[in-house]
């Protein structure tokens, strides 16, 4: 009989992404997932990046994988042999290779054939000899022309209904640098194939042009687009984006902080709203008592269609969220049932400052005493007994990133859980200098990288990618791949990571709230009794990555594996140094059978 494991590593995957909202209510003693049951110490996760988000047929895709210890995020002390595949838009494998890591980094390159079909491709990596968790990154193949003007379109809101006023801002820069100040702009809005508005404007000194127009009062299909034509001297280019129109349809999910609404306990509820196309939808409205219509709390989304509100639910009362904007959504969305007994868990801050303890508020109803633990993955870092309505201070010591706070009853059953984020204390500063201020096409560029911590030089693994930033602007900002810190610290803990540039932006005042809203929705947790092997068998690679589980399969015969590809990355810089051509990695060696 297979051992049953209480899966606690990423319950967002269990309940949000995979629809298993079963509370842990069985009177069954279960073994909590521990390091050994998940594959032993030293388990790793891989973080993939490509040099560009899209490629023309005939261009070379350059990819890099950083392999880190799953909990401490430290480089591995040994080499790993990885199996890389590129799958086409239909899921078929178009090429594959073996790559060997060097200094915890492996590199891979592939030239897109000239006759390759356009569409979305997936580069995936697995570890057949060690069984570590797989990873993947998507990129596009299509014919395109590098733009002379770099442009992005941002709507004031992420959702509009019939009759609403749409406001959009065009942000445009010249590819060679500078702002096309004074450039004439014509914005044309199409709704259901018919021109709904045409507005003109001028690019200001900051490179911005804002336009507003009103949507028709009657919309049938809700297919809308906004196109900007920019005339900068002799250069005329266009930029377009879909208008997020909502017609009486909205996918709204509500997430009580900690897991449940409990009668008489002040609670915070997170929510996420999506369009039928699974894009974020902004909303405003109110929480009401269903029976009386009395307004309990105002509601407004803040980032990516996500927001939160507070209420103290009453026993026997049913609540619902009424949508006022966008217009046309008549039926309110019911809140989860109010429980008579349970626990409520609240974080005191959106983001825990570096080096500071984690402060949590615990509310209990029908529970005399409970225990609060702070963990990172399956490893417990700190704990404390708590009494009802008590603030608890826990010190996770040197741990940072995403931490798991859990309330347990006296019998060891979990009552509430949420994720919190603690800023890393060991911030690394990277300075990159060029040997000249400007270059002409075809000229040799020399870069010097210097890594410091607290102003003092430190050894570090430095990885650089050089590409045309005008190509990056061809992808919407929210769909661009996350940078490495966000990729390592947040991506494994959530189901979907979009608009990733905001989360660690120190200059953005909304960054910390955006992190909390992400973890309160995409990282929301409930409890399920699950067999680890069956869980992985059912949900595949996402489950393996969520748990950072190591499941070593038998290695394939050597003749079944494609030839190894040379590594193209992975240098170690103990002091400031100049870049040189990378040497070839050693020939892949056969690893021992696990």
UniProtKB/TrEMBL annotation:
For the keyword Magnesium, the answer is: no
Which keywords does this Swiss-Prot/TrEMBL entry list? Signal, Thioester bond
InterPro entries registered for this protein in UniProt: A2M/Complement_sys, MG2
Top-level taxon of the source organism = Bacteria
Q: Which residues form the Macroglobulin domain?
A: 46-141
Which residue intervals make up region (Disordered)? 551-594
Which is one GO molecular function term here? Answer: endopeptidase inhibitor activity
Compositionally biased, Basic residues: which spans? 575-594
Record's compositionally biased regions (Pro residues): 551-565
Record's protein name:
Macroglobulin domain-containing protein
């Amino acid at each position: 009989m297979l051992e049953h494991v209480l899966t606690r590593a990423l319950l967002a995957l269990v309940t949000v992404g995979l629809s298993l909202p079963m509370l842990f209510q069985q009177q069954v003693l279960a073994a909590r997932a521990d390091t050994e049951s998940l594959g032993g110490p030293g388990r790793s996760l891989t973080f993939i990046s490509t040099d560009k988000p899209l490629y023309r047929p005939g261009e070379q895709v350059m990819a890099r994988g950083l392999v880190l210890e799953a909990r401490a995020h430290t480089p591995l002390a040994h080499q790993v042999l990885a199996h890389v595949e590129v799958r086409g838009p239909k899921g078929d494998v178009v090429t594959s290779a073996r790559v060997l890591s060097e200094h915890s980094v492996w590199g891979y390159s592939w030239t897109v054939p000239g006759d390759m079909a356009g569409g979305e491709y997936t580069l995936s990596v697995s570890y057949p000899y060690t069984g570590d968790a797989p990873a993947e990154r998507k990129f596009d193949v299509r014919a395109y022309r590098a733009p002379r003007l770099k442009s992005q379109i941002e709507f004031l809101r992420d959702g509009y209904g019939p009759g609403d006023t749409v406001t959009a801002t065009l942000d445009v820069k010249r590819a060679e640098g500078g702002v096309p100040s004074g450039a004439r702009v014509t914005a044309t809005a199409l709704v259901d194939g018919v021109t709904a508005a045409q507005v003109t404007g001028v690019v200001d000194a900051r490179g911005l042009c804002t336009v507003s127009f009103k949507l028709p009062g009657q919309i049938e299909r809700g297919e809308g687009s906004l196109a900007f034509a920019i005339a900068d001297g002799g250069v005329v280019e266009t930029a377009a984006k879909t208008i997020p129109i909502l017609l009486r349809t909205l996918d709204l999910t509500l997430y009580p902080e900690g897991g449940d609404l409990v009668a008489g306990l002040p609670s915070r509820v997170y929510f996420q709203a999506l369009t039928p196309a699974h894009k974020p939808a902004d909303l405003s409205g109110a929480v009401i008592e269903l029976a009386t219509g009395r307004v309990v709390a105002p509601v407004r989304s803040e980032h990516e269609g996500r927001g939160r509100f507070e209420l103290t639910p009453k026993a026997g009362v049913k609540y619902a969220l009424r949508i006022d904007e966008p217009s046309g959504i008549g039926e309110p969305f019911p809140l989860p049932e109010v429980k008579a007994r349970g626990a409520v868990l609240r974080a005191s801050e959106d983001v825990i400052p570096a080096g500071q303890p984690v402060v949590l508020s615990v509310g209990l109803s029908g529970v005399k005493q409970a225990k609060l633990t702070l963990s990172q993955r399956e490893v417990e870092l700190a704990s404390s007994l708590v009494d009802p309505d008590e603030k608890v201070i826990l010190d996770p010591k040197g741990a940072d990133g995403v931490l798991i706070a859990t309330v347990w009853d006296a019998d060891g059953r979990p009552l509430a859980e949420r994720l919190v984020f603690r800023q890393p204390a060991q911030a690394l500063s990277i300075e990159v200098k060029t040997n000249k201020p400007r270059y002409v096409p075809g000229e040799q560029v020399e870069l010097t990288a210097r890594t410091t911590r607290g102003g003092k030089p430190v050894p570090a693994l430095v990885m650089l990618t050089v590409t045309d930033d005008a190509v990056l602007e061809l992808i919407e900002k929210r769909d661009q791949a996350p940078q490495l810190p966000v990729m390592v610290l947040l991506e494994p803990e959530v189901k979907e990571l979009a608009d990733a540039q905001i989360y660690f932006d120190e200059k953005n005042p909304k960054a910390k709230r955006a992190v909390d809203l992400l973890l309160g929705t995409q990282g929301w947790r409930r409890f399920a009794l699950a067999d680890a092997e069956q869980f992985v068998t059912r949900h595949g690679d996402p489950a393996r990555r969520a748990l950072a589980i190591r499941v070593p399969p038998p290695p394939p015969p050597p003749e079944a594996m494609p030839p190894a590809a040379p590594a193209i990355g992975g240098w170690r810089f103990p002091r400031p140094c100049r870049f040189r051509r990378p040497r070839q990695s050693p020939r892949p060696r056969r690893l021992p059978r696990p």
